[in-house]
Amino acid sequence: MIFDLNGLRAAGVTMAMLIAGPVSAAECIAPADPGGGWDFTCREVGRLLTEEGLVEGNVQVTNMPGGVGAVAYANVAGKRADDGDLVVATSTVGITQIAQGKYPGGTDQMRWLGMLGADVGVIAVAKDSDIQTLDDLMARLKEDPTSVVTSGSSGAGGWDHIRLLLLAQEAGIDVIDQIRWVQFDGGSPAVTQMMGGQVGVVSTDLGEIRGFVESGDIRVLAVLADEPISAFPDLPTAKSQGYDVTGYNWRGFYTGGEVSDEDYAAWVDRLKTLYETEAWQETAKASGLEPVWRGGDEFTSYVTEQEQQMAEISRQIGVIQ
Amino acid sequence: MEILSSLWAGFAVAALPINLALIVAGCFAGTLIGALPGLGPVNGVAILIPLTFAFGLNATSSMILLSAVYYGCMYGGRISSILLNIPGDEPAIMTTLDGYPMARKGQAADALAISGIASFIGATLATLGLTLFAPLLAKAAIYFGPADYFALYVMAFATIGGISGTDPRKTLLAALLGLMLGTVGLDPATGVARYTFGSFNLYDGFDPIVALVGLFAISEILFFLEQKAQDRQLIPKGRVFPRMSRVKEGLGASLRGSVIGFIAGILPGAGASLGAVMAYSFEKRLKDKGTFGTGDPRGVAAPEAGNNAASGGALIPMLTLGVPGSGTTAVMLAMLISLNIQPGPLLFERSPDLVWGLVAALYLANFVLLILNLPLIGIFTRVLGLPAWGLMPLVVAISYLGVYAITHAAFDLMVMVGFGILGFVLRKLDFSLVPVVLGLLLGLDMENNLRRALSISGGDFTVLLQSPIALLLYGITAVFLALTLWLSRRDSKAFAAKGGR
């Protein structure tokens, strides 16, 4: 009967969690369905905050999918702007959406806590592709922008797409709007479709497809980082090949715009302490993130600047008017 | 023989007391979660993840628990489909078509037993397929491109015309309505908002599970309220124990359904719902003598075997490619990554303990589920003995709770009620609700794949006909439709010859 008791307990805890809600005061909203990057950020950081004793009890993770984060943004701005126990996961993808006017309001609506790490953009082809280098790829696109089909996990105008177009722009291709772009529901579906010969190039985050990099099924033409990254020091950067383009996808948090200075500072502190732990450094690397810290005012001005940059790029490539 | 020794090592892992306990606990919790309308495998698995951290389980044990829950949900989803005509989760929709009519005839116990055994057959065959062919199948699945997926969805929609008993024209209309509702929300290819009327709540469109609970559960309640007090009568409880003779009728259908479901599961863009749809419609085409839709055991066995086989199949692209074939496997994938395990081409080499322990645990979970479910049939059928004043409010409460637990949005409760009213009206007009949900559920994937195919070709529609796989699928669809027309003409001629109208 012990087995049945176990089952009942599991079911009981499940129901209790459904009904009773938060087990501790701290809550993290993941503005996406379970399983994605933002969900991962909330769950991992939440778990480590508890394990490192930085919050009491478990951090409650709430999934609030919708509009690539817009639903959660609207919800926090409208209903929970002063909730000092709440943090919301976001990333460069969220800032791209804000810059393109797809959220209700700009970055000034929220208080920006900090970033804990960044995923790095990669441009990859299948291992049997006859495209050998980034120069090869750009030469082909320059000759005929429709000759290679490109793809990634964002829609047209999303961060994966923009990063690729930045490279094309840097290569002097002036008809970048003719390059074909296919959206898949994630980096690894895009890669498997590339291995099946459906598309020619994938532009996405390294963390999403590192399994394929390790197995040698794909050839990475460039990582969009300033320096070669520690987990894969052999992968060439775009910069080393003469293309001055970087494309990080940082992971961080914001909180409501009316949260008190005290609560705000406490969260920044907590996240900074977490960043410095061995446990985070390991977790970050394991999931393909480069640990990077920016917090408080520094992070806020970084976000503001990125919003402006992103709006500028989006206008240049014709995503917004 | 290498597989056998690996599998043997896997059983050694799965048979550890902690893992055995997790299998039983997971199966039980999964059955329960699956049976509650609104709560499906995605929530079940997502909810249990913090628990695995809290108990400090290692990656293998965590995966075993979550997979047991996943399999358990697939078993559990059918229970409310059969007893209440309310699917517990999306893949269980098809089970309402013949399961509920069986219950209405007092054969609830038979239907539960058939579906339990069909689930067992489907899941076991899929696990066998996973054991023997996983890396091979994964290699084949990557050659399935957007145009091929589109052809697959065309086939699914071409076959649903005949799945429900009502007028085929009404089925078609209902499917179109579902497809139309499926276009609400952000266009994934371009991010343009469609039919959202400026509301961020509509940006992600209608969640199929919310629509499902509204269409089935809430409309059922409305129907119930409409009846006069003296007419209020729940369906008969009937026998409490199933009859073996009825169970045997579903065996062939279970085997056929398993194969179809398994194939749908392996394809990352398809999944359990599509598996159940295809299994049902093929079985109906193959064996129907006018009894499908009125409580035919084969109409219960085929989709149940189909959706269970599909969930087993969906683990293949997840483990070997790191590509989730469904919402549930996406959550499991995220958990694996957070436990520092990289799913993908190297997983079988790097973490054989995890892979083979999991496979062995799946075999065990199937047996546990079968053993757990058959004795419970007596208890489940007693649900029908509950007085209506107790049962119906409970259904409403669970529906609200389930939907809110998924989305945490009061807005979605209104969406649910809206779909409830829509369901009520449609049923009054003698429309089947199943094609509406299928349109909503499969329509977006169908559209996405069409859009992808067209993005690849730069807008040239001939891309749809250039792949041999797609052509094969269109060929099967054409044969299928021709056969249907021929059969219906033959039937009506035979009918006329007998002196009919």
Strand arrangement across the biggest beta sheet of chain B: 1-2
Q: Helical percent range of chain B?
A: over 70%
What is the ordering of alpha helices and beta strands of chain B?
A: HHHHHHHHEEHHHHHHHHHHHH
Beginning-to-end CA distance, first to last residue of chain A: 67 Å
On the 0-100 scale, what is the average pLDDT of chain B? 84
Number of helical elements of chain A? 11
Q: Give the beta-strand count of chain B.
A: 2
Largest interface: A-B, 69 and 70 residues
Distance between the termini of chain B: 64 Å
Assign an overall shape of chain A: globular
Low-confidence stretches of chain A: 1-23
Query: Under CATH, the topology of the largest domain in chain A is which?
Result: D-Maltodextrin-Binding Protein, domain 2
* Major sheet characteristics of chain A: 10 strands, mixed
List keywords for this structure.
heterodimer, A: 321 residues, alpha/beta, D-Maltodextrin-Binding Protein, domain 2, 2 domains, 10-stranded mixed β-sheet, 11 helices, 10 strands, 19% strand, B: 501 residues, mainly alpha, two-stranded antiparallel sheet, 74% helix
